[in-house]
Amino acid sequence: MNSVLIVEDELSLQELYELILSINGFKIVGKASNGYEAVEVYKSLSIKPDVVIMDHRMPIKTGLEATKEIMQIDPQARIIIATADEEIEKMARSMGIISFKSKPFSNDRLINNIRKAINNPPVQANI
Amino acid sequence: MPHFEKELEIKNRISHIFLTIPSEEMYGKVLPIILKRFSSALGYFGYISDSGDLICPSMTMSIWEICKIQEKDIIFKREEWGGGKTIWGRSIEQKRAILSNESFNTPVGHLTIENILVVPIIFRNSVIGQIALANKPKGFHQDDIPIINDIANFIAPLLSARLELKNQRKYISDVENSLKISESKYIRRIEFYKDLFTHDVNNILQSIKCASDLLFFNKRELEKGKKLEFVKYTIDRQVARGARLVSNINTLSKTDENGVKLRALNALDYLNNSITSLKKIYFCKSFELNIENSTQDTIIYANKMLIDIFDNILLNAIRFNNNDCPRIDIRITEILKNSKKYLKFEFRDNGIGISEEMRKFIIGTIPEALKKEYRRVGLGLLTVQRLITLFNGELVINDRVKQDPSKGTNIIILLPKVKI
Questions:
Q1: Which candidate, A127, B163, B298, B418, has a CA 20 to 30 Å from the CA of A49?
Q2: B110 touches chain A (CB under 8 A)
Q3: Domain boundaries defined on chain B
Q4: How many domains, in total, are found in chain A?
Q5: How many angstroms away from the CA of B207 is the closest CA of chain A?
Q6: Taking each helix axis from N to C terminus, what angle separates B228-256 and B379-390, rounded to the nearest 10 degrees?
Protein backbone atom coordinates (compact mmCIF):
# COMPACT_ATOMS: atom_id res chain seq x y z
CA MET A 1 0.00 0.00 0.00
CA ASN A 2 1.45 3.39 -1.01
CA SER A 3 1.80 5.94 1.72
CA VAL A 4 1.00 9.65 1.78
CA LEU A 5 1.75 12.55 4.14
CA ILE A 6 -0.93 15.28 4.03
CA VAL A 7 0.12 18.85 4.77
CA GLU A 8 -2.85 21.22 4.73
CA ASP A 9 -3.96 23.93 7.16
CA GLU A 10 -7.60 23.76 6.07
CA LEU A 11 -8.85 21.11 8.44
CA SER A 12 -11.88 20.25 6.31
CA LEU A 13 -9.61 19.68 3.31
CA GLN A 14 -7.21 17.66 5.41
CA GLU A 15 -10.11 15.39 6.41
CA LEU A 16 -11.43 15.19 2.84
CA TYR A 17 -8.01 14.33 1.38
CA GLU A 18 -7.69 11.61 4.01
CA LEU A 19 -11.08 10.20 3.05
CA ILE A 20 -10.41 10.33 -0.71
CA LEU A 21 -6.98 8.72 -0.38
CA SER A 22 -8.20 6.01 2.00
CA ILE A 23 -11.06 5.09 -0.34
CA ASN A 24 -8.53 4.87 -3.18
CA GLY A 25 -6.23 2.53 -1.29
CA PHE A 26 -3.56 4.83 0.07
CA LYS A 27 -2.22 4.76 3.59
CA ILE A 28 -2.05 8.08 5.42
CA VAL A 29 1.18 8.04 7.42
CA GLY A 30 0.91 11.53 8.81
CA LYS A 31 -0.93 14.84 8.78
CA ALA A 32 0.37 18.37 9.39
CA SER A 33 -1.33 21.75 9.59
CA ASN A 34 1.66 23.95 8.79
CA GLY A 35 5.10 23.83 7.21
CA TYR A 36 6.88 23.49 10.51
CA GLU A 37 4.83 20.44 11.52
CA ALA A 38 5.34 18.98 8.04
CA VAL A 39 9.13 19.01 8.39
CA GLU A 40 8.94 17.59 11.92
CA VAL A 41 6.56 14.79 10.89
CA TYR A 42 8.69 13.98 7.83
CA LYS A 43 11.84 13.80 9.94
CA SER A 44 10.09 11.59 12.51
CA LEU A 45 8.95 8.98 9.99
CA SER A 46 11.39 6.05 9.86
CA ILE A 47 9.90 4.92 6.54
CA LYS A 48 9.40 8.01 4.41
CA PRO A 49 6.05 8.46 2.63
CA ASP A 50 5.82 7.72 -1.10
CA VAL A 51 4.23 11.11 -1.68
CA VAL A 52 3.73 14.35 0.26
CA ILE A 53 0.71 16.50 -0.59
CA MET A 54 1.74 20.00 0.39
CA ASP A 55 -0.33 23.18 0.64
CA HIS A 56 1.62 26.44 0.38
CA ARG A 57 -0.02 29.28 2.31
CA MET A 58 0.07 28.03 5.89
CA PRO A 59 0.90 29.54 9.27
CA ILE A 60 4.36 29.39 10.88
CA LYS A 61 6.13 28.01 7.78
CA THR A 62 4.94 28.01 4.15
CA GLY A 63 4.71 24.95 1.96
CA LEU A 64 7.65 26.14 -0.16
CA GLU A 65 9.82 26.66 2.92
CA ALA A 66 8.89 23.21 4.17
CA THR A 67 9.50 21.70 0.71
CA LYS A 68 13.00 23.20 0.62
CA GLU A 69 13.82 21.70 4.03
CA ILE A 70 12.35 18.30 3.20
CA MET A 71 14.28 18.18 -0.09
CA GLN A 72 17.45 18.93 1.84
CA ILE A 73 16.72 16.10 4.28
CA ASP A 74 15.63 13.73 1.50
CA PRO A 75 16.36 14.71 -2.13
CA GLN A 76 14.33 11.65 -3.22
CA ALA A 77 11.12 13.04 -1.63
CA ARG A 78 8.15 13.20 -4.00
CA ILE A 79 6.20 16.33 -3.20
CA ILE A 80 2.99 17.46 -4.88
CA ILE A 81 2.15 21.08 -4.22
CA ALA A 82 -1.63 21.53 -3.97
CA THR A 83 -2.29 25.23 -3.56
CA ALA A 84 -4.55 28.16 -4.32
CA ASP A 85 -1.45 30.26 -5.15
CA GLU A 86 -0.72 29.75 -8.83
CA GLU A 87 2.11 32.29 -8.90
CA ILE A 88 4.45 30.06 -6.90
CA GLU A 89 4.50 27.29 -9.53
CA LYS A 90 7.82 28.30 -11.13
CA MET A 91 9.56 28.57 -7.78
CA ALA A 92 8.04 25.27 -6.62
CA ARG A 93 9.15 23.43 -9.76
CA SER A 94 12.69 24.77 -9.40
CA MET A 95 12.79 23.14 -5.95
CA GLY A 96 12.31 19.73 -7.49
CA ILE A 97 8.65 19.04 -6.72
CA ILE A 98 7.12 16.26 -8.71
CA SER A 99 3.82 17.94 -9.53
CA PHE A 100 1.94 21.20 -9.05
CA LYS A 101 -1.83 21.37 -8.65
CA SER A 102 -3.82 24.60 -8.60
CA LYS A 103 -6.96 24.50 -6.47
CA PRO A 104 -9.70 23.65 -7.22
CA PHE A 105 -9.01 20.24 -8.80
CA SER A 106 -11.01 17.02 -8.99
CA ASN A 107 -10.43 13.96 -6.82
CA ASP A 108 -9.56 12.01 -9.98
CA ARG A 109 -6.78 14.39 -10.88
CA LEU A 110 -5.38 14.21 -7.38
CA ILE A 111 -5.34 10.40 -7.40
CA ASN A 112 -3.87 10.25 -10.94
CA ASN A 113 -1.16 12.69 -9.97
CA ILE A 114 -0.22 10.71 -6.89
CA ARG A 115 -0.04 7.48 -8.91
CA LYS A 116 2.02 9.18 -11.60
CA ALA A 117 4.34 10.62 -8.97
CA ILE A 118 4.89 7.19 -7.44
CA ASN A 119 5.69 5.65 -10.84
CA ASN A 120 8.05 8.44 -11.92
CA PRO A 121 11.56 9.07 -10.60
CA PRO A 122 11.97 12.10 -8.33
CA VAL A 123 12.79 15.40 -10.03
CA GLN A 124 16.21 16.99 -9.56
CA ALA A 125 16.06 20.33 -7.76
CA ASN A 126 17.80 23.19 -9.53
CA ILE A 127 18.22 25.64 -6.70
CA MET B 1 12.21 111.07 -24.44
CA PRO B 2 9.52 112.87 -22.41
CA HIS B 3 9.19 111.73 -18.78
CA PHE B 4 5.79 110.00 -19.12
CA GLU B 5 6.88 108.18 -22.33
CA LYS B 6 9.94 106.91 -20.51
CA GLU B 7 7.76 105.52 -17.67
CA LEU B 8 5.32 104.05 -20.20
CA GLU B 9 8.11 102.29 -22.03
CA ILE B 10 9.38 100.81 -18.73
CA LYS B 11 5.88 99.58 -17.88
CA ASN B 12 5.44 98.07 -21.35
CA ARG B 13 8.72 96.21 -21.01
CA ILE B 14 7.75 94.95 -17.54
CA SER B 15 4.32 93.79 -18.80
CA HIS B 16 5.93 92.00 -21.71
CA ILE B 17 8.26 90.12 -19.35
CA PHE B 18 5.39 89.16 -17.03
CA LEU B 19 3.42 87.87 -20.02
CA THR B 20 6.20 86.02 -21.77
CA ILE B 21 8.35 84.51 -18.98
CA PRO B 22 6.32 82.07 -16.90
CA SER B 23 9.17 80.93 -14.67
CA GLU B 24 10.87 82.67 -11.74
CA GLU B 25 13.39 84.00 -14.26
CA MET B 26 10.87 86.82 -14.66
CA TYR B 27 12.12 88.51 -11.44
CA GLY B 28 15.68 88.63 -12.77
CA LYS B 29 14.52 90.09 -16.07
CA VAL B 30 12.34 92.83 -14.54
CA LEU B 31 14.92 94.00 -12.00
CA PRO B 32 17.55 95.38 -14.51
CA ILE B 33 14.87 97.57 -16.11
CA ILE B 34 14.13 99.22 -12.76
CA LEU B 35 17.81 99.38 -11.78
CA LYS B 36 18.56 101.17 -15.05
CA ARG B 37 15.70 103.61 -14.52
CA PHE B 38 17.22 104.67 -11.18
CA SER B 39 20.87 104.26 -12.25
CA SER B 40 21.31 101.82 -9.39
CA ALA B 41 24.02 99.20 -9.34
CA LEU B 42 22.33 96.67 -7.07
CA GLY B 43 18.88 95.54 -6.02
CA TYR B 44 16.37 92.77 -5.73
CA PHE B 45 12.78 92.06 -6.69
CA GLY B 46 10.91 89.45 -4.69
CA TYR B 47 7.58 88.30 -3.33
CA ILE B 48 6.11 87.42 0.05
CA SER B 49 5.41 83.73 0.46
CA ASP B 50 2.34 82.19 2.17
CA SER B 51 4.40 81.84 5.34
CA GLY B 52 5.29 85.56 5.26
CA ASP B 53 8.92 85.15 4.19
CA LEU B 54 10.51 87.36 1.54
CA ILE B 55 11.62 85.29 -1.49
CA CYS B 56 13.98 87.01 -3.92
CA PRO B 57 14.45 84.91 -7.09
CA SER B 58 16.14 87.84 -8.85
CA MET B 59 19.19 87.45 -6.60
CA THR B 60 20.40 84.29 -8.32
CA MET B 61 20.48 86.24 -11.57
CA SER B 62 22.20 89.42 -10.39
CA ILE B 63 24.39 89.49 -7.30
CA TRP B 64 24.74 85.75 -6.64
CA GLU B 65 28.26 85.35 -8.02
CA ILE B 66 29.71 88.52 -6.49
CA CYS B 67 28.27 88.17 -3.00
CA LYS B 68 30.74 86.22 -0.88
CA ILE B 69 28.45 85.38 2.04
CA GLN B 70 28.63 81.68 2.91
CA GLU B 71 25.41 79.64 2.64
CA LYS B 72 23.46 82.52 1.13
CA ASP B 73 19.82 82.01 0.35
CA ILE B 74 17.10 83.77 -1.63
CA ILE B 75 14.63 83.15 1.22
CA PHE B 76 14.59 85.76 4.01
CA LYS B 77 12.65 84.43 6.96
CA ARG B 78 10.20 86.85 8.47
CA GLU B 79 11.74 86.45 11.92
CA GLU B 80 15.09 87.67 10.49
CA TRP B 81 13.75 91.00 9.23
CA GLY B 82 10.42 91.47 11.04
CA GLY B 83 9.86 93.80 13.97
CA GLY B 84 11.65 96.75 12.37
CA LYS B 85 15.07 95.09 12.45
CA THR B 86 15.94 96.10 8.88
CA ILE B 87 15.04 98.91 6.51
CA TRP B 88 13.34 96.50 4.07
CA GLY B 89 11.49 94.91 6.98
CA ARG B 90 10.23 98.33 8.09
CA SER B 91 9.18 99.13 4.52
CA ILE B 92 7.05 95.98 4.40
CA GLU B 93 5.58 96.44 7.87
CA GLN B 94 4.87 100.17 7.40
CA LYS B 95 3.67 99.60 3.84
CA ARG B 96 5.65 102.52 2.44
CA ALA B 97 8.76 103.30 0.42
CA ILE B 98 11.82 104.19 2.52
CA LEU B 99 15.14 105.58 1.38
CA SER B 100 18.45 106.00 3.11
CA ASN B 101 21.60 107.55 1.79
CA GLU B 102 23.76 106.35 4.67
CA SER B 103 26.07 103.40 4.22
CA PHE B 104 25.16 100.18 6.04
CA ASN B 105 27.07 97.87 8.33
CA THR B 106 26.89 94.63 6.39
CA PRO B 107 28.19 91.18 7.29
CA VAL B 108 31.59 89.98 6.05
CA GLY B 109 31.39 89.01 2.39
CA HIS B 110 28.21 91.05 1.82
CA LEU B 111 28.25 93.64 -0.96
CA THR B 112 28.81 97.20 0.27
CA ILE B 113 25.55 99.17 0.51
CA GLU B 114 26.08 102.92 0.22
CA ASN B 115 22.45 103.93 -0.14
CA ILE B 116 19.11 102.19 -0.55
CA LEU B 117 15.54 102.71 -1.71
CA VAL B 118 12.99 100.03 -0.83
CA VAL B 119 9.33 99.89 -1.83
CA PRO B 120 6.66 97.36 -0.90
CA ILE B 121 4.40 95.99 -3.63
CA ILE B 122 0.89 96.27 -2.24
CA PHE B 123 -2.17 94.64 -3.71
CA ARG B 124 -5.60 95.01 -2.07
CA ASN B 125 -3.94 96.40 1.04
CA SER B 126 -1.60 93.43 1.46
CA VAL B 127 2.13 93.50 0.86
CA ILE B 128 2.79 90.82 -1.75
CA GLY B 129 6.37 91.72 -2.73
CA GLN B 130 9.18 94.19 -2.59
CA ILE B 131 11.67 96.01 -4.81
CA ALA B 132 14.97 97.25 -3.37
CA LEU B 133 17.46 99.45 -5.18
CA ALA B 134 20.93 100.33 -3.90
CA ASN B 135 24.15 102.12 -4.69
CA LYS B 136 22.87 104.97 -6.84
CA PRO B 137 26.01 107.04 -7.61
CA LYS B 138 24.73 110.31 -6.16
CA GLY B 139 22.30 108.80 -3.71
CA PHE B 140 18.49 108.60 -3.82
CA HIS B 141 16.21 111.63 -3.76
CA GLN B 142 12.73 112.10 -2.29
CA ASP B 143 11.54 112.58 -5.91
CA ASP B 144 12.47 108.94 -6.60
CA ILE B 145 9.76 107.77 -4.17
CA PRO B 146 6.66 108.63 -6.26
CA ILE B 147 8.33 107.11 -9.34
CA ILE B 148 9.20 103.81 -7.61
CA ASN B 149 5.72 103.79 -5.99
CA ASP B 150 4.18 104.18 -9.45
CA ILE B 151 6.23 101.26 -10.77
CA ALA B 152 5.38 99.14 -7.68
CA ASN B 153 1.66 99.93 -8.12
CA PHE B 154 1.87 98.96 -11.76
CA ILE B 155 3.59 95.68 -10.90
CA ALA B 156 1.17 94.86 -8.02
CA PRO B 157 -1.75 93.33 -10.04
CA LEU B 158 0.67 91.56 -12.38
CA LEU B 159 2.57 90.03 -9.46
CA SER B 160 -0.66 89.15 -7.68
CA ALA B 161 -1.93 87.27 -10.75
CA ARG B 162 1.45 85.54 -11.07
CA LEU B 163 1.42 84.45 -7.41
CA GLU B 164 -2.19 83.33 -7.66
CA LEU B 165 -1.30 81.22 -10.69
CA LYS B 166 1.69 79.79 -8.84
CA ASN B 167 -0.53 78.91 -5.86
CA GLN B 168 -3.09 77.32 -8.15
CA ARG B 169 -0.38 75.27 -9.87
CA LYS B 170 1.00 74.21 -6.49
CA TYR B 171 -2.51 73.33 -5.29
CA ILE B 172 -3.18 71.27 -8.43
CA SER B 173 0.19 69.58 -8.11
CA ASP B 174 -0.45 68.83 -4.40
CA VAL B 175 -3.89 67.44 -5.19
CA GLU B 176 -2.48 65.34 -8.03
CA ASN B 177 0.29 63.98 -5.79
CA SER B 178 -2.14 63.27 -3.00
CA LEU B 179 -4.46 61.50 -5.46
CA LYS B 180 -1.57 59.43 -6.79
CA ILE B 181 -0.62 58.40 -3.24
CA SER B 182 -4.23 57.53 -2.31
CA GLU B 183 -4.72 55.70 -5.58
CA SER B 184 -1.58 53.67 -5.08
CA LYS B 185 -2.55 52.86 -1.46
CA TYR B 186 -6.05 51.96 -2.62
CA ILE B 187 -4.77 49.71 -5.39
CA ARG B 188 -2.37 47.96 -3.00
CA ARG B 189 -5.19 47.47 -0.49
CA ILE B 190 -7.51 46.12 -3.18
CA GLU B 191 -4.73 43.80 -4.39
CA PHE B 192 -4.24 42.59 -0.83
CA TYR B 193 -7.93 41.88 -0.26
CA LYS B 194 -8.24 40.33 -3.72
CA ASP B 195 -5.35 38.01 -2.95
CA LEU B 196 -6.86 36.87 0.36
CA PHE B 197 -10.31 36.56 -1.18
CA THR B 198 -9.06 34.50 -4.14
CA HIS B 199 -7.08 32.22 -1.88
CA ASP B 200 -10.00 31.59 0.48
CA VAL B 201 -12.50 31.11 -2.36
CA ASN B 202 -10.24 28.57 -4.06
CA ASN B 203 -9.94 26.64 -0.81
CA ILE B 204 -13.70 26.70 -0.32
CA LEU B 205 -14.21 25.52 -3.92
CA GLN B 206 -11.60 22.79 -3.40
CA SER B 207 -13.42 21.47 -0.33
CA ILE B 208 -16.77 21.55 -2.13
CA LYS B 209 -15.25 19.87 -5.21
CA CYS B 210 -13.67 17.11 -3.10
CA ALA B 211 -16.92 16.57 -1.22
CA SER B 212 -19.15 16.57 -4.31
CA ASP B 213 -16.79 14.16 -6.17
CA LEU B 214 -16.94 11.86 -3.17
CA LEU B 215 -20.74 12.00 -3.11
CA PHE B 216 -20.93 11.39 -6.85
CA PHE B 217 -18.30 8.69 -7.30
CA ASN B 218 -17.87 7.13 -3.85
CA LYS B 219 -21.30 7.23 -2.26
CA ARG B 220 -21.26 3.52 -1.46
CA GLU B 221 -17.88 3.71 0.29
CA LEU B 222 -19.06 6.76 2.26
CA GLU B 223 -22.19 4.95 3.41
CA LYS B 224 -20.12 1.93 4.35
CA GLY B 225 -17.67 4.04 6.37
CA LYS B 226 -20.52 6.17 7.82
CA LYS B 227 -18.95 9.26 6.31
CA LEU B 228 -21.90 10.41 4.21
CA GLU B 229 -23.15 12.87 6.85
CA PHE B 230 -19.66 14.24 7.36
CA VAL B 231 -19.24 14.99 3.63
CA LYS B 232 -22.66 16.64 3.32
CA TYR B 233 -21.94 18.63 6.45
CA THR B 234 -18.57 19.71 5.01
CA ILE B 235 -20.35 21.23 2.02
CA ASP B 236 -22.75 23.11 4.35
CA ARG B 237 -19.79 24.43 6.35
CA GLN B 238 -17.99 25.58 3.24
CA VAL B 239 -21.10 27.36 1.98
CA ALA B 240 -21.39 29.12 5.36
CA ARG B 241 -17.70 29.98 5.17
CA GLY B 242 -18.19 31.42 1.68
CA ALA B 243 -21.07 33.54 2.97
CA ARG B 244 -18.90 34.79 5.83
CA LEU B 245 -16.14 35.63 3.35
CA VAL B 246 -18.53 37.70 1.26
CA SER B 247 -19.81 39.40 4.41
CA ASN B 248 -16.23 40.23 5.48
CA ILE B 249 -15.40 41.71 2.10
CA ASN B 250 -18.58 43.81 2.28
CA THR B 251 -17.71 44.93 5.80
CA LEU B 252 -14.13 45.81 4.89
CA SER B 253 -15.25 47.79 1.84
CA LYS B 254 -17.80 49.68 3.97
CA THR B 255 -15.17 50.51 6.57
CA ASP B 256 -12.91 51.86 3.82
CA GLU B 257 -15.42 54.62 3.28
CA ASN B 258 -15.00 57.70 5.43
CA GLY B 259 -16.02 56.93 8.99
CA VAL B 260 -18.92 54.88 10.34
CA LYS B 261 -21.84 56.00 12.48
CA LEU B 262 -21.87 54.54 15.98
CA ARG B 263 -24.89 54.16 18.23
CA ALA B 264 -25.73 52.69 21.61
CA LEU B 265 -26.54 48.99 21.40
CA ASN B 266 -26.62 45.93 23.60
CA ALA B 267 -23.48 43.91 22.86
CA LEU B 268 -24.89 40.83 24.61
CA ASP B 269 -27.79 40.61 22.12
CA TYR B 270 -25.29 40.57 19.26
CA LEU B 271 -23.14 37.95 20.97
CA ASN B 272 -26.18 35.73 21.56
CA ASN B 273 -27.25 36.07 17.90
CA SER B 274 -23.77 35.11 16.82
CA ILE B 275 -23.77 32.03 19.07
CA THR B 276 -27.16 30.96 17.64
CA SER B 277 -25.73 31.19 14.08
CA LEU B 278 -22.65 29.25 15.12
CA LYS B 279 -24.77 26.42 16.51
CA LYS B 280 -26.71 26.26 13.24
CA ILE B 281 -23.53 26.12 11.12
CA TYR B 282 -21.87 23.51 13.34
CA PHE B 283 -25.00 21.51 14.14
CA CYS B 284 -23.12 18.33 13.24
CA LYS B 285 -20.08 19.00 15.41
CA SER B 286 -20.06 19.00 19.17
CA PHE B 287 -18.41 21.95 20.86
CA GLU B 288 -18.52 23.45 24.30
CA LEU B 289 -19.32 27.11 24.83
CA ASN B 290 -19.51 28.83 28.22
CA ILE B 291 -20.37 32.43 29.03
CA GLU B 292 -19.49 34.11 32.30
CA ASN B 293 -21.00 37.58 32.52
CA SER B 294 -20.29 39.71 35.58
CA THR B 295 -21.95 42.90 34.37
CA GLN B 296 -25.60 43.86 33.97
CA ASP B 297 -24.94 46.75 31.66
CA THR B 298 -23.69 45.63 28.28
CA ILE B 299 -24.58 48.76 26.30
CA ILE B 300 -21.72 49.95 24.11
CA TYR B 301 -21.08 52.31 21.22
CA ALA B 302 -20.81 50.33 17.99
CA ASN B 303 -22.99 49.51 15.02
CA LYS B 304 -24.59 46.43 13.46
CA MET B 305 -21.20 45.28 12.12
CA LEU B 306 -20.49 44.22 15.72
CA ILE B 307 -21.95 40.86 14.72
CA ASP B 308 -19.02 40.41 12.29
CA ILE B 309 -16.57 40.68 15.20
CA PHE B 310 -18.29 37.93 17.20
CA ASP B 311 -18.98 35.72 14.14
CA ASN B 312 -15.34 35.79 13.03
CA ILE B 313 -13.91 35.06 16.47
CA LEU B 314 -16.33 32.23 17.22
CA LEU B 315 -16.05 30.62 13.77
CA ASN B 316 -12.24 30.78 13.88
CA ALA B 317 -12.21 29.19 17.34
CA ILE B 318 -13.96 26.13 15.94
CA ARG B 319 -12.53 26.10 12.42
CA PHE B 320 -8.92 26.30 13.55
CA ASN B 321 -9.25 23.61 16.16
CA ASN B 322 -7.95 20.02 16.04
CA ASN B 323 -9.82 18.84 19.13
CA ASP B 324 -12.78 16.49 18.87
CA CYS B 325 -14.66 18.89 21.07
CA PRO B 326 -13.58 22.52 20.60
CA ARG B 327 -14.10 24.67 23.66
CA ILE B 328 -14.77 28.39 23.87
CA ASP B 329 -14.97 30.23 27.20
CA ILE B 330 -16.37 33.75 27.01
CA ARG B 331 -15.94 36.14 29.92
CA ILE B 332 -17.61 39.55 29.99
CA THR B 333 -16.51 42.16 32.51
CA GLU B 334 -16.43 45.91 32.86
CA ILE B 335 -13.11 47.72 33.20
CA LEU B 336 -11.88 51.26 33.63
CA LYS B 337 -8.96 52.30 31.44
CA ASN B 338 -7.63 55.86 31.17
CA SER B 339 -10.78 57.08 32.96
CA LYS B 340 -12.97 55.43 30.33
CA LYS B 341 -15.36 52.54 30.91
CA TYR B 342 -15.03 49.57 28.60
CA LEU B 343 -16.87 46.30 28.18
CA LYS B 344 -14.23 43.59 28.11
CA PHE B 345 -14.81 40.35 26.20
CA GLU B 346 -12.38 37.47 26.58
CA PHE B 347 -12.66 34.57 24.16
CA ARG B 348 -10.49 31.65 25.29
CA ASP B 349 -10.34 28.66 22.93
CA ASN B 350 -8.41 25.42 22.72
CA GLY B 351 -7.67 25.80 19.01
CA ILE B 352 -4.39 25.68 17.12
CA GLY B 353 -3.44 29.15 18.34
CA ILE B 354 -2.06 32.21 16.60
CA SER B 355 1.68 32.63 16.17
CA GLU B 356 3.49 35.72 17.45
CA GLU B 357 4.20 36.74 13.85
CA MET B 358 0.50 36.66 12.94
CA ARG B 359 -0.45 38.59 16.06
CA LYS B 360 1.92 41.39 15.16
CA PHE B 361 0.44 41.44 11.69
CA ILE B 362 -3.20 41.50 12.80
CA ILE B 363 -2.68 44.19 15.42
CA GLY B 364 -0.39 46.12 13.05
CA THR B 365 -1.16 48.76 10.50
CA ILE B 366 -2.36 48.44 6.92
CA PRO B 367 1.12 48.91 5.38
CA GLU B 368 2.18 45.82 7.33
CA ALA B 369 -0.83 44.07 5.90
CA LEU B 370 0.43 44.79 2.44
CA LYS B 371 3.61 42.84 2.97
CA LYS B 372 3.43 39.72 0.83
CA GLU B 373 4.96 37.50 3.49
CA TYR B 374 1.95 38.08 5.76
CA ARG B 375 -0.63 36.89 3.27
CA ARG B 376 -1.08 33.67 5.21
CA VAL B 377 -3.59 35.31 7.50
CA GLY B 378 -7.29 35.15 6.68
CA LEU B 379 -9.67 38.02 6.28
CA GLY B 380 -11.54 37.16 9.49
CA LEU B 381 -9.26 38.62 12.12
CA LEU B 382 -8.33 41.52 9.82
CA THR B 383 -12.03 42.39 9.72
CA VAL B 384 -12.22 42.09 13.51
CA GLN B 385 -9.21 44.37 13.97
CA ARG B 386 -10.56 46.94 11.50
CA LEU B 387 -14.00 47.06 13.14
CA ILE B 388 -12.63 47.33 16.66
CA THR B 389 -10.48 50.28 15.57
CA LEU B 390 -13.55 51.95 14.06
CA PHE B 391 -15.48 51.35 17.28
CA ASN B 392 -12.65 53.04 19.22
CA GLY B 393 -11.93 49.80 21.01
CA GLU B 394 -8.89 47.60 21.50
CA LEU B 395 -7.90 44.12 20.40
CA VAL B 396 -5.34 42.02 22.26
CA ILE B 397 -4.36 38.50 21.23
CA ASN B 398 -2.71 36.35 23.89
CA ASP B 399 -1.90 32.68 24.28
CA ARG B 400 -4.47 30.77 26.35
CA VAL B 401 -1.51 29.08 28.03
CA LYS B 402 1.25 31.66 28.41
CA GLN B 403 4.06 31.33 25.84
CA ASP B 404 2.51 28.29 24.19
CA PRO B 405 0.52 29.41 21.13
CA SER B 406 -0.29 25.81 20.21
CA LYS B 407 -2.61 25.46 23.25
CA GLY B 408 -5.13 27.97 21.98
CA THR B 409 -5.85 31.66 22.00
CA ASN B 410 -7.20 34.26 24.38
CA ILE B 411 -8.68 37.09 22.34
CA ILE B 412 -9.49 40.18 24.39
CA ILE B 413 -11.71 42.92 23.07
CA LEU B 414 -12.37 46.24 24.75
CA LEU B 415 -15.35 48.22 23.49
CA PRO B 416 -16.26 51.66 24.91
CA LYS B 417 -19.35 51.70 27.08
CA VAL B 418 -22.10 54.24 26.76
CA LYS B 419 -21.89 56.81 29.58
CA ILE B 420 -25.06 56.85 31.65
A1: A127
A2: no
A3: 3-175, 260-420
A4: 1
A5: 6
A6: 40
- Across the beta sheet with B340-349, what order do the strands follow? B288-293, B327-337, B340-349, B404-416, B394-401
Cis peptide before B2 (omega within 30 of 0): no
Q: Which of B199, B209, B322 is the closest to A57 by Cβ? A: B199
Q: Which domain holds residue A115?
A: 3-119
Assembly ipTM: 0.93
Q: Would residue A94 count as lying in a domain?
A: yes
> Which residues of chain B fall short of a pLDDT of 70?
1-2, 60-72, 107-110, 256-259, 283-284, 361, 363-378, 420
pLDDT at position B59, please?
A: 77
Distance from CA of B281 to the nearest CA of A (A): 14
Model pLDDT, residue A109: 95
* Residues making up chain B, counted from first to last: 420
A12/B199 touch (CB, cutoff 8 Å), yes or no: no
Interface test with A, best of B210, B319, B320 (most A CBs within 10 A): B210
pLDDT at B383: 82
Angstrom distance (rounded) from CA B90 to CA B96: 8
Q: Which residues contact B290 (CB under 8 A, 6 or more apart)?
A: B327, B328, B329, B330
CB-CB contact of A31 with A14 (8 Å): yes
Looking only at Cα atoms, what is the longest distance across chain B? 118
Q: What is the DSSP letter of A124?
A: P
pLDDT of B377 reads 57
Superfamily for the B260-420 domain:
Histidine kinase-like ATPase, C-terminal domain (3.30.565.10)
Half-sphere exposure of A4 (CA within 13 A, CB side): 26
CATH no. for B3-175: 3.30.450.40
- Interface contact flag, A107 B210, Cβ < 8 Å: yes
In chain A, residues with a C-beta closer than 8 Å to the C-beta of B207 are: 10, 12-13, 16
- pLDDT at B370 (0 to 100): 47
Interface test with B, best of A10, A26, A40, A89 (most B CBs within 10 A): A10
CB spacing of A108 vs B210 below 8 angstroms? no
Confidence bin at A32 (pLDDT 50/70/90): very high
